[in-house]
Amino acid sequence: MRKRLFLKALFALAAGSGAAACWAQASDKPIEWVHPYPVGGGSDAIARKLAESVGAQMGRSFFVSNKPGGATNIAAAYVANARANGNIVFTGDFATLAANPHLFTNLPYDSARDFVSAGLYARYPILLVVSSKVPASNLDEFLQWARAHPDSANFASSGVGSPQHLAAELFRERTGLTMTHVAYRGGAPAVTDLMAGAVSFALMDASTVVPQMKTGRLKVLGVASPQRMKNFPDIPTLHEQGLKDFEAFAWQGMLVPAGTPRATVEALNQGLAAALKTQAVIEFYANIAVEPWFSSPEEMSSFVAGENSRWGKIIRERGISLQ
After folding, report:
1. How many whole angstroms separate alpha carbon 251 and alpha carbon 16?
2. How far is residue 175's CA from residue 220's CA, in Å, rounded to a whole number?
3. DSSP type of residue 95
């Protein structure tokens, strides 16, 4: 009987995925999830929630290691030089993978060669929001006001080269508006000045302005997505208001150092897939206006290449630089 049970268990193990088997045999050392932003922000909260959930799905413990600074370059260099032993993952996003290769002339890493995609996990919708001092309640009224008051059409962003900044540059290109960029060190101070009327508008990620959205302290004129947001269905898209095919959003996914075994990458991707289906993660995302967005490693790689090309063109044409 014991022999039959043993052989049955052995057969089941062999029939399981190579990725799961690799993970089961891996070291019990906690996995370091390197996050390139400070503790306490929305993306940090997501990394911590996913680290907990993915760890539970895979039977491994994760801990989040925050390494902010350098427009994500400090954390990226740390991971690029780490051992590819399956014990380190990295929050890869718009900055590291799409913008920085064009904003900086000398990076301490190569975004195309030093990392391997494990899967996307978050999409941050971007909203057109205006100060209460701007007499507009929809896109058309805002465009009329901005064209009549070019000296007042100043927009806030969370920093030069940020998704919010580049989304606004795309908006400038598509609308032909004359407008002035006011860069802040983060989304919170930008939103504070926007509410005070020190700046007129912004194309800001929904997660940054969700409290103001709920209380009406900022006017939300539209979302730069093909469809309305599931949890805020009353906000129209910019597309349906006449700005055809205008889409901009921030995003994040999981990276590992180049050379990490393929089986480990697959196991991490399976862990992400399972975590994003849990009710706790679904509700967490909904509360902060972030959309779950799962992909395979190959789909993430293809998407990143497209984003790098798309936003690199805008950065070059506008002459934007961080050096």
Report:
1. 32
2. 18
3. I
Q: Which amino acid belongs to residue 185? A: R
Long-range CB contacts for residues 244-248, cutoff 8 Å, separation at least 24: 246/170, 246/171, 246/174, 248/126, 248/163, 248/166, 248/167, 248/170, 248/171, 248/203, 248/224
| Global pTM exceeds 0.85 | yes
Token pair listed for 127: 């909203």
Q: What is the total residue count of the chain?
A: 323
Give the pLDDT of the chain (323 residues) as one tens digit per residue.
444 433 333 333 333 344 444 544 456 789 999 999 999 888 999 999 999 999 999 999 999 999 999 999 999 999 999 999 999 999 999 999 999 999 999 999 999 999 999 999 999 999 999 999 999 999 999 999 999 999 999 999 999 999 999 999 999 999 999 999 999 998 999 999 999 999 999 999 999 998 888 888 899 999 999 999 998 999 999 999 999 999 999 999 999 999 999 999 999 999 999 999 999 999 999 999 999 999 999 999 999 999 999 999 999 999 999 97
3-state secondary structure 106-146: CCCCCCCCCEEEEEEEEEEEEEEEECCCCCCCCHHHHHHHH
Contact 291, 125 (CB under 8 A): yes
DSSP class of 71: G
Two tokens, residue 294: 């799962």
Q: Are 201 and 149 in contact (CB under 8 A)?
A: no
- Give the 3-state secondary structure of residue 34: strand
